[in-house]
Write a structure and sequence with these properties.
- Helix content is 27%, strand content 17%.
- Helix 12 (321-328) packs across helix 18.
- The protein starts with 23 loop residues before the first helix and ends with a helix.
- It has 615 residues and is of the alpha+beta class.
- It contains 21 helices and 23 strands.
């Protein structure tokens, strides 16, 4: 059994159901329909709160040398204008955490350790609603935290001190996930370069900082409350007890971005992507190759010139967050300004547009839309709640008048019509037994802390996809299927009568109307849901970003003449159907303009196409 977090009373004997006697504290929590977890249920290995001799330092101190000299290449301003720099000011984070705590006591500990590791390490993650956070805690995934991170595997090239740091841990991490990080107790900063005669602060060269394994620390997320069962389902374990193995594959998978990458061809790369994701190096293998692309320049105002300088941009797909943060916090606090925010959003849009390619083709009376995943993980990936990608098709007649639309999005109401298109997304849910304990409806929902079922996952896999590999990574498709090796998806849309051409777009949205309203309406604890909802309203309702756009003009001949039951085949049934329809003035047989008038033009078109062997 893992060590329990100091400072909290154990409720021994309080289990998930069964015949065990519950304590008075447990009974009180059950009465309020809150799962009676404790801080120990969310315990994960690694460096623990109050385990640092020197606390995580203020990022503004880093700006003295690493900021305000080049808005594009310096580390500070791009980091500040990224989801990493604003992770602890994100209003959706706080709204989600409130409901997580509402559903399962102390669940916010799982959230805080990745969104504000400095605050978590300082012991200010309790109470787990974030109310104890202060000052530099709101700098999110800060400079000092990342650059004091220790490779838990201590691979060759790691700083000499790291072996002893790992040996001093009571519970070293067995695999990377969910913020089970290791941090140097001293302020010995690390990075990829060997700095000669450097005197400003303690420095160690660290190859770990160029690896995807560093990103795995927070970009594979698991819920340690649940234990994987022999049949592949996830059931809660004993309360007030850390997970028995601490391995992510034995826990319920919430996010698997790193594991998706690890099971892709990129992990065995590099793959030449032709500079698709920026930087001076077209070869892509690690997370950093796309999210921190190399440039040429200096990362310190008095530092050495590098031809492989990692840019601290950390762009993903969220174009909404920064403006939302600015509605709630002054720029003097966040480090944001008009220029840095505009540049960050532009980079994010570019990343989304480069994340996929689209190919359009006609197959008989259908339009086929193929979306090709060009990323190193699923498309989309990451945080499952609220994120989605969909196809929008607009059909026009030969006068360029819109006659039909699929996947329509109303920007005024933020309502997406999902019934006539394909939406790429993950849907999680709560099993009946856990729902009964938590007092929430069973089935699909946004209950982050107690979801224990994967109900849908049709997201497009990356290059190198193998079903068995993704099943082992707990990220196999659910309610959908992809063949081994497939990193694209096809969707057929029936071409409506009279359609001459179509415009096709692929959209991505960070925060859906359904999710933001859940955060507002289900919150019975505080006003974080109201705050997030208002910020969403004030900043365009997380307006969708156009990832791909294309047009196609349809081949009309075959569609016009083939009017019998066997669409796509012109035969004697079509002749009979046409003659019958023509004589009866049936609209189905009216295949040539002017529509609504049956005349020799219809007969001429039919005969010419039939004799031409169409299709």
């Amino acid at each position: 059994m893992r060590n329990k977090r100091a400072g909290f009373i154990s409720r021994s004997g309080a289990l998930w159901g069964g015949g065990c006697l519950a304590t008075a504290a447990t009974m009180s929590l059950i009465a309020t329909a809150q799962v009676p977890t404790t801080i120990n249920d969310f315990f994960l290995p690694g460096t623990q709160p109050n385990g640092l001799m020197v606390p995580i330092q203020d990022s503004n101190e880093c700006a003295l040398c690493h900021g305000n000299f080049d808005a594009d290449l310096e580390p500070f301003r791009p980091w500040a204008a990224s989801p990493m720099g604003q992770a602890a000011r994100d209003p959706v984070f706080f709204a989600c955490m409130s409901i997580a705590n509402q559903d399962a006591a102390f669940a916010g500990d799982l959230c805080l350790r990745c969104h504000t590791p400095g605050g978590w390490l300082a012991g200010r993650s309790t109470p787990t609603d974030g109310s104890a956070l202060q000052g530099t805690d709101f700098q999110g995934v800060s400079c000092n935290f990342c650059h004091r991170s220790v490779d838990p595997q201590n691979l060759p090239g790691a700083p000499a001190e790291d072996a002893q740091i790992l040996a001093n841990l009571t519970d070293p991490p067995l695999d990377a996930h969910s913020g089970n990080f290791v941090v140097d107790p001293q302020d010995r900063r690390r990075g990829p370069y060997q700095l000669v005669n450097f005197f400003v602060h303690d420095w160690r060269q660290s190859p770990f900082h160029r690896t995807s394994e560093m990103c795995a620390t927070c970009h594979d997320v698991s819920n340690p409350v649940f234990e994987r069962q022999p049949d592949g389902t996830y059931a809660p374990g004993d309360l007030d007890t850390p997970h028995p193995t601490s391995l992510k594959t034995d826990m319920f998978p919430i996010e698997r971005t790193y594991s998706e990458w690890l099971a892709s061809d990129f992990a065995d790369g590099p793959i030449d992507m032709g500079g698709r994701f920026g930087g001076v190096n077209p070869l892509v293998s690690t997370c950093q190759d796309c999210h921190m692309p190399d440039a040429e320049g200096i990362g310190c105002s008095f530092g050495d010139y590098h031809t492989d300088l990692p840019q601290h941009q950390f762009n993903g797909g969220n174009t909404w967050l920064l403006n939302a943060v600015r509605t709630l916090h002054p720029d003097s606090e966040t480090g944001l300004d008009d220029n840095s925010v505009s540049a960050s959003i532009a980079r994010t849009i570019a990343m989304l547009q480069n994340a996929s390619d689209m190919e359009l083709s006609q197959s008989g009376s259908d339009l086929n839309v193929r979306i090709i995943n060009q990323t190193g993980h699923k498309l989309p990936s990451g945080y499952p709640e609220g994120r989605r990608m969909w196809i929008n098709v607009k059909f026009f007649d030969d006068q360029n008048q819109l006659i039909a639309e699929r996947g329509a999005y109303d920007s005024a109401t933020a309502v997406l019509t999902t019934s006539d298109t394909k939406v790429y997304e993950t849907k999680l849910g709560v099993s009946a037994d856990v729902a009964a304990l938590a007092g929430v409806p069973a089935g699909e929902g946004f209950h982050f802390a107690i979801n224990n079922m994967r109900l849908k996952d049709n997201r497009i896999p990356p290059r190198g996809f193998i079903n068995a590999g993704f099943e082992a990574a707990q990220s196999e498709p659910v309610g959908y299927s992809y063949a081994d090796g497939q990193y694209w998806d096809d969707t057929l849309f029936s071409i409506p009568a009279g359609a001459d051409h179509a415009e096709v777009r692929v959209y991505y949205q960070s925060v859906s109307k359904e999710y933001i309203e859940f955060l507002k309406n289900e919150n019975t604890t505080d006003n974080t849901g109201d705050i997030a909802h208002q910020a969403w309203l004030d900043t365009g309702k997380s307006a969708p970003v156009e990832m791909d756009f294309g047009t196609i003009t349809f081949q009309q001949g075959c569609n016009a003449a083939d009017i019998a039951a066997q669409f796509g085949v012109l035969d004697l049934q079509d002749v009979q159907a046409f003659i019958t329809g023509f004589l009866a003035q049936d609209p189905i047989a009216d295949i040539a303009p002017p529509f609504g008038v049956f005349d020799l033009s219809d007969l001429q078109l039919f005969v010419s196409e039939f004799l031409a062997g169409c299709p």
